[in-house]
Amino acid sequence: MRKGMLFVGTLILAALLLVALLAGLERAEAAPTLPTPTGCVVVSANIITDTIWDGDCYLVTTDTVAIMPDVSLTITPPLSGTLVRFQPGAQLQVLGTLQALGTETRPITFTSAAATPVPGDWIGIILEDDAQNDRDIIRYAVIEYARTGVKVNDEDFVELTHNRFRYNGGPGPRDGAISGDADNATITHNVIHDCRNGLSLNESFNNVISHNRLYNIEAYGIRLFAATTSGGSSNQITHNEIHDCQLAALRLEIGSQNVVLSNTLYLNAGSAAIFVDQALSRFEGNLVIANGAPGYGGAVVVTDTSTLSAISRNIIHDPHGDALAYDASAPSPVLATAGNALCAPAGYALNNGAGNVSAPTNWWGANDPAAAIFGPVDASNPITLALAAEAITLPADGHATALLTVTFRAPDGTIV
Q1: d(C-alpha 326, C-alpha 323), whole Å
Q2: Residues 6+ apart with CB under 8 A from 94
Q3: Other CB atoms within 10 Å distance of the CB of residue 350
Q4: What backbone phi and psi angles, to 5 degrees, belong to 251?
Q5: In the predicted model, is pLDDT for residue 139 greater than 50?
Q6: How far is CA 339 from CA 10, 301, 321, 405, in A?
Q7: Would the pLDDT of 318 be above 80?
Q8: Contacts of 166 (CB under 8 A, 6+ apart)
Q9: What is the pLDDT of residues 210-263, one digit of tens each?
Q10: Which of 91, 154, 355, 411 would you call most buried, defined as having the most Cβ atoms within 10 angstroms of its Cβ?
């Protein structure tokens, strides 16, 4: 086991300072006390003709209100916004088309009708496969106190953007903000917090999951889970900020060609990213800082995976365990593990329990990678760090200044 690093580099230190700043900005929010509205429009039957809700308040009083096939419900809020309240156990089932078109100043709130709401009060919004590829849209909405805020049952081309999901979750291991089977969906610019799970998707393909912020999650931030089918493939998971998840920020199970790019993953009690049986997927340009707890598996864990296209250009600093870990179930992984800044003062920068790993041209937390790696690893041509100080010239007042330059340099002399 590693005993520590002498110097972790200014990139790592700057990243740690960034994490400390971000950590102070978002913590658990107190549950709001919603006023009990009067004069709500009572909704107690299925929606059988094209309908527009443009009022202040609607109250769903029956277990299931269904938007029937070939029928649309459009919600266009007034200046005050629209409040949609659900009695305990109620749900909105979309067999046709839902267009919830809030704006930044005219939001829609889907919430519990209970006097003292708790997570799981109502079932949620269920988007069913209508076989017509009509685009269900939920935009600028608050979805709270449901078992699952939005559940996608094989519906394609769903758009969930600029929403806030909070206080959602139930007894199921995949309950939370967003779950189900989604293909070609756009899930962007959402804030998801204080939920059982963030996104928990199965057999999901070609989705764009981007620019979301997830925090204070009981289980997983984003999970592509495998059941009797794969977790999903060809998904773009990019530019998300995920922190304070208890099990892991990201977990991808049985899939291929998933791209995890330019995410910020920090202060998660479990691993930052776990790859299970992934083929030709990529993990690039991510900032992974201060995750885990003593005795856990590592910041980035690869298991049952023989080929990843790349683990490159990431900054991974782990204070509790290994920065990058391949377990014994990853048979001879053929990986492009290059161009990373890896540092693990309490563990290994790369702990390889599998076959040979090619990992040239990385920064290992020190100029000599020997103590930073475990197992069969080709760590040739490491990136090195150099310090250079200008000569000090004393001015007339006797005070001296000097410029200290920190340089990361590739073996070919290129500054990286």
Answers
A1: 10
A2: 66, 67, 73, 125, 126, 127, 128, 130, 136, 155
A3: 29
A4: -145, 120
A5: yes
A6: 16, 18, 21, 21
A7: yes
A8: 29, 142, 143, 144, 191, 192, 193, 194, 195
A9: 999 999 999 999 999 998 899 999 999 999 999 999 999 999 999 999 999 999
A10: 91
Sign, CA dihedral 193-194-195-198, equals positive
Burial 223-248 (b: 16+ CB within 10 A, else e): bbbbeeebbbbbbebbbbbbbbbebb
Q: Which residue has the higher pLDDT, 391 or 147?
A: 147
Q: What is the pLDDT of residue 32?
A: 46
Identify the residue whose tokens are 């990678």: 369
- Closest residue by Cα to residue 329 from 368, 350, 301: 301
- 3 state DSSP class of 178: strand
Decide: 382 and 409 in contact? Cβ < 8 Å: no
2 has pLDDT over 80: no
For residue range 111-125, list pLDDT tens digits in order: 999 999 999 999 999
- Which tokens in the block code for residue 1? 């086991």
Continuous segment of H or E residues that includes residue 22? helix 9-23
